[in-house]
Amino acid sequence: MIPASFDYVRASSVDEAVEVLADAGEEAKVLSGGQSLLPLLRLRLAYPSVLVDVGRLPELRGVRDEGGHVHIGATTTHDEIIRSPVVRAGCPLVALATATVADPAVRHRGTFGGSMAHADPAGDLPAVAVALDMEFVLRSTTGERVVTATDFFTDYLETALEPGEILTAVRVPKLGEGWGYHYEKFHRTAQAWAIVGVAAAVRVTVSESGARHVAEARVGLTNMGPTPLRATAVESAAVDAELPPVPHATANGSPSTARLPSANGSGPHDTLREAASLADGDTSPTADLHATPDYRRHLARVLTHRALTHAAATV
Amino acid sequence: MTEELDAGIVARQIAESGELGEPARNRHEVGAARRRKEDARLVTGRTRWTDNIQLPGMLYVAFLRSPMAHARVTRVDASPALHRPGVVAAFTGRDLAGEQGSLPCAWPVTEDIVVPAHPPMAVDEVRYAGEAVACVVATDRYRAYDALESIEIDYEPLPAVVDMNAALEDDAPRVHEEGNRAYVWKFGTGDIDAAFRDAPVVVERTFVQQRLIPTAMEPRAVVAQTDGDSFTLHSSTQVPHILRIMLATVTGIPEHKLRVIAPDVGGGFGSKLQVTAEEVLLLLLARRLGKPVKWTESRSEGNLTVHHGRDQIQRLSLAAEADGRLRGLRVDLLADMGAYLMLITPGIPILGAFMFNGIYKMDAYDFTCTGVFTTKMPTDAYRGAGRPEATFAIERLMDELAAELGLDPIEVRRRNWITRDEFPYTTVANMTYDSGDYEAATRKALALFGYDKLRAEQSERRDRRDPVQLGIGVSTYTEMCGLAPSRVLGSLSYGAGGWEYAAVRMLPTGKVEAVTGVSPHGQGHETAWSQIVADALGVPFEDVAVVHGDTAIAHKGMDTYGSRSLAVGGVALVRACDKVREKARHVAAHMLEASAEDIEFSEGTFRVRGTEAGTTIQEIALAVFGAHDLPDGVEASLDSDATFDPDDFSFPHGTHLCAVEVDTETGATSIRSYVAVDDIGKVINPLIVEGQVHGGIAQGIAQALFEEAVYDSEGNLLTTTMADYLLPSAADLPDFVTARTETPATGNPLGVKGVGEAGTIASTPAVVNAVVDALRPYGVRDVPMPCTPERVWRAIQGGAS
To answer: Region annotation Disordered: residue ranges (chain A) (predicted)?
Structure first.
């Protein structure tokens, strides 16, 4: 658990950072909060020759409301995001999922952009990114480009970031009125990675009679394949699903412990449950010490139903 | 802002916050909830941990460890490491073979036990992944570690042996030439065949005690140094005294030339009750190089090479009458020794042999334990050491028996336990339980838990097929503490005694130093021992310092493990205080011009019976220091020491009740409520007891739900990080409701029984019983530990089909 030796550069600007990266090529790694990278170095699973520290650059930090979207600077910490009124108002799903990341110590050091660039499919934020169609702003010495979330996550721990490029910000499109959100995370201990997680956003319509239906749904899956996945089949099937009346005292904000009793037999949830049962289609979950692929598939179905139900209940 | 963050302020706040522990004037210190006087330095880190020690010219050691579970080392060359930056020396097992000796096993449990040679650094063959095969000594830790990769080593793979049942087959690959069976140890009383013949009910189960990795907050660390003549070894150990004797024997360094120091030690849970390869090797390196050397393990290195705990397969048969009364119990254990026998490896399951009957009466008992070699890290003591395994077995069986008979698990226990008026009671395992009151503890626990109400809710949830089912688990445990009566240890072939030592030094200014032979590593001895001394000598709590853990200062002792510190070491301290008082009485008589028989002692003052004239023990200490006017024949010292060897073990007991909610759709288990009523006899400091109970329960829950060391079929340890070896934190645990009943132990003057392991022993079966109870409607009779969500979910699928 002692890293191999490496050079360390603390960049004083983004321009300097990308210049150092351009020179170092594939040998370089960007250090932000260090909460994913440092364990990799200590376990000698990564051997960068140089670390470029961007963690203290003010230009990369902070949250702004930019009208149609929320701008999140790459080195904004998880804790800052959880507490940000702009995030809570403009993209509450980000705050809900971020609150489940690891533990308070990690959330104070770990950064939003760092989690994305690390691209661990067991991380909580990438699934939110694909569910919300976030846009990733990448910069290098040759300029800036923007890629969508689905294009950003390319494989296990791999992204569209080229050598010499850093992630400077993420733009989170606002979904507008009538949406409810929930992140359902299933893990064995509070600090553990998700065995499976489901990020859900649901737009609800209420008819004159008071009946509630799903108008639109977004579902992102954590840890169901080498990249975060969008459960598009669920999203289509959930449209027009009838929702139950809103239960009082909904446990919005305590996602991983909140548990709505599931319906047995017939009831208004059925369409939603059928939609959720499609959640593991087109997934390729792996086996590890905590779960087999079969069990992950089962969990994806159960948790997707819960996530949709909870999300809808917050509207 | 910086001031607020200053650790010194935190330390002072902790030190000054006496409100919780301030005893009323003239009240006894013993029994007061004193805050721990050692916490300020431990919590702020302003203290000496082994890794904090920096010495001039110090060198740093890194070990190359075998990546294979079992292999012949066909070639090894450490010399390329010598060309790496900062490297001072590099050694292989062959370099050290002539002087490294063999790591000791102090508990050969049978005459014909196989005790294989255990070189601290492997020479020709490695037998577990992580075994040291070479080392580098360098000017800093990082260079030492970097240079490891330049060592050239070739392995010829040999078959791994990971499964105990397979290991015992005739054609199994051998871990050692002598075979894979280390020993077979048998014990029995009564007519076991008669007990099972025509028994109306027989419950047969096989339970697996998974392998656990003790996870002390402070990793192991060793510093060795020499002045060319004598040696000093600092180690993060629980057993400085045992270590000194054993290291002298292994290395040939004469005992009087070897000082061992356990500075502040951050937890052990049994894992630091060991003589480790690294301790031996660092002494050898200091001897060879003449320079101080340090090694501190990384967490992953620790997961690989700190001795592991548990790992038993328990085949159990319980015979009972139709009304649930027990007739007899058969226990057939396979205990995984790992690759070698370490300090007390073979004895751990034997410590459980006397506990499988629990608190219950029965006619016959039959116990067989087979120690099995595998190509895994050796096992040894881990919090409870043998007793958690035994308690789990009997408490799970009692719930299974209740289910078989359709009785409430409390009722089945009530029909079998030793009643309060039957003490002292000699059990079927030949232990004499001196005191206890199982009815009282259970009554209190049931009331605190709301047992009947929860049963009603359970039944209601079952009726409406709630996807979240409620389960209730019972554990009415006992254990044996106060290790140990030396005669008993002798009869079990243990290599040492179980006495304990204490000394009291009266300083001229009236302050007191209490020297103890036990070796605290987080338990709070400095506070509890101060309370004992304060009462025994009538001096203020603040005026007592407790000295420990250095063989040059606290020169004798048997150290800390097995819930023995208070029940054995605390009693030695009381005896030493008695002697101080007796010496002081003679001086007081002289000073007060009275005869010693007429001198009374109360709250620190000696008085002539019937008069107000008096002198305090602290005044006497000064007078003895001056020695200007001592009576004839009286030495100028009040200092005294004592050893105490208990006649028997002590037997804490209690009733733990656990309610879990199991989400049957996902298999997730959450603990809804947990009640622990413990009877540990008299209590010196209830706050410390509370801490021990909380930590113990957490650790027992961890075995039930979270922790498991996993080796693959090739013998590779897969759980080398905390991401894979899951430890629960406070966020994963419920609030514990704790309470006590108090039946004093009769075997010692303090009436104390020991509390260090009780919570761990009691809680694991309480939790698993609750999980299984929740799933009984699904036909589930067992869930292997740890009861992970997937295992629970699969049990539901399997049970239902």
So the answer is: 244-273
Residues B151 and B286 in one domain: yes
Torsion of CA B76, B77, B82, B83, to 10 degrees: -120
- Angle at which helix B240-251 crosses helix B277-289, to 10 degrees, equals 60
DSSP state of B257: G
Please determine, for residue B4, whether its predicted confidence score (pLDDT) is greater than 50.
no
Segment B559-607, tens digit of pLDDT: 999 999 999 999 999 999 999 999 999 999 999 999 999 999 998 999 9
Residue B613 domain-assigned (yes or no): yes
Q: Radius of gyration of chain A from Cα atoms?
A: 20
- The pLDDT value recorded for residue B637 is 97
Number of domains in chain B: 4
Given a contact cutoff of 8 angstroms between Cβ atoms, the answer to whether B440 and B732 are in contact is no
Residue finishing a domain among B296, B328, B361: B296
**Distance between CA atoms of residues B445 and B766, nearest Å:** 13
Give the per-residue pLDDT at A251: 43
Partner B contacted by A192 (CB < 8 A): yes
**With bands split at pLDDT 50, 70 and 90, how would you rate the model's confidence at A255?**
very low
User: Residue B9: is its pLDDT beyond 90?
Assistant: no
Tell me the three state secondary structure of residue A185.
Answer: strand
Residues 462-521 of B with CB under 8 A from A: 465-468
Boundaries of every domain in chain A: 1-174, 179-313
Q: Please determine, for residue B202, whether its predicted confidence score (pLDDT) is greater than 80.
A: yes
CB-based contact B467 A295, cutoff 8 Å: no
Residue A248 has pLDDT above 60, yes or no: no
Distance from CA of B5 to the nearest CA of A (A): 16
Q: How far apart are CA B700 and CA B341, in angstroms?
A: 25
Q: Using CA atoms, how far apart are residues B328 and B351, in angstroms rounded to an integer? A: 20
What is the distance between the alpha carbons of residues A214 and B271, in angstroms, rounded to a whole number? 56
Average pLDDT of span B298-316: 97
List C-alpha distances in Å: A187 to A78, A301, B91, B115. 19, 15, 44, 43
Residues B565, B690 within the same domain: no
Q: B684 lies in a domain?
A: yes
What's the average model confidence in pLDDT over A157-178? 96
**Where in the sequence is the domain holding B44, given as residue range(s)?**
2-51
CATH number of the domain residue B558 falls in: 3.30.365.10
Alpha-helical (H) ranges within A28-184 are 37-42, 78-83, 85-90, 92-98, 104-109, 112-118, 125-131, 149-152
Q: Which runs of consecutive H residues, i.e. helices, occur in B368-421?
A: 387-405, 409-414
Whether residue B202 lies inside any domain: the answer is: no
Find the residue in B nearest to A191 (Cα). Answer: B729
pLDDT of res. B26: 56
CB contact under 8 A, B142 and A2: yes
Task: Compute the nearest-CA separation of B637 from chain A (Å).
Answer: 53
User: A254 touching B, CB under 8 A?
Assistant: no
Residue B733 contacts A, CB cutoff 8 Å = no
- If one counts every other C-beta atom within 10 angstroms of the C-beta of residue B789, the result is 22
Report whether pLDDT(A20) > 80. Answer: yes
d(CA A146, CA A167): 10
pLDDT band at B172 (very low <50, low <70, confident <90, very high): very high
Which amino acid, A172? V
Complex ipTM, two decimals? Answer: 0.93
Residue B550 is assigned to a structural domain of this protein:
yes
Q: What angle do CA B231, B237, B243 make, to 5 degrees?
A: 50
The pLDDT of residue B2 is above 90: no
Which residues in chain A have their CB less than 8 angstroms from residue B213's CB?
none
The angle at the Cα of B672, spanning B670 to B675, to the nearest 5 degrees, equals 125
Q: In the CATH scheme, what is the homologous superfamily, with its name and number, of domain A179-313? A: CO dehydrogenase flavoprotein, C-terminal domain (3.30.390.50)
Tell me if the domain spanning A1-174 has CATH number 3.30.465.10: yes
